[in-house]
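Student: Hello, beginner here. Can you help me understand the protein record under this note? Any guidance would be welcome.
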Amino acid sequence: MPPWHRRRSFDISVTIKIRFRRVIALNLAVVVLAAGGATGLVVEHEVDGLDLQAPADDPGWANVGVCNAWTAVYLGRGWVLTAAHVGVSNIELEGTKYAADFHSTQRVFNPDGTAADLLLFRIKPVPDLPSLEIAAESPPIGTPIVLVGSGLGRGERTSGGGRVGFNWQAPSIKRWGTSLVHEYRHDQSVGFTDAFATRFSIAKTAHEAHAAQGDSGGAVFAHLDGRWQLVGIIMAVDSHPGQPARSAVYGNRTFIADLARYRQFIFGITDVP
């Protein structure tokens, strides 16, 4: 197991009663996660700047870029995948800008014909980056994951509604963090998309993170079968009653499109295995 997934040596726990939660798409300008510039993810630890470059065991850092002030993932062979609510736009990958081919746009659909919150499009020229492997199977509950997003970061501590956490803070910068697969939502109740979720918890993982505004379209990786695989795309978060606006509090969930459910559809369009 990569070292950043190990739990900290101390044990802190909180009891959070979950009554009602709103699901928030990460790119709306008011209560959502995706507007603004280029610090991504609310990372719990106190070491500023630790997550602003690729981790030592790199899952695919360079393939995640800024798109339309939010986030998108370069799959390979000229194809980009992002959340549908992010939309099509030029993308910046590791400081290089690539033009979007607006005529190449392809929405990802569920087997019943409904549209999932996923979108494919091509960029040019073709980046000199490796192709990402999309997981063929959903990661089990409890699987350590790495999230990479280009949204807002962690601000001052905050509290409200009996919960504690952090405000979102500008600017937006690509950042990585860690969490665990907490639960599955294969009822298409999250934006008509089969998804899994993380739960923001105190010291659960070494770089415990929660999505923030701008992280929509970001990549989620898991180390499966001895190699890194792309398992999800960040879509949305939820909120608790009384939670301060534009904040991440303990108990919040980040909802992530489960790409194993859409792998064959994506492969049929992109030919990226």
Remarks:
- The chain is about 5% helix and 45% strand.
- The CA atoms of residues 28 and 255 lie 15 Å apart.
- The helical segments are 263-270.
- Residues 1-21, 27-39 have pLDDT under 50 and may be disordered.
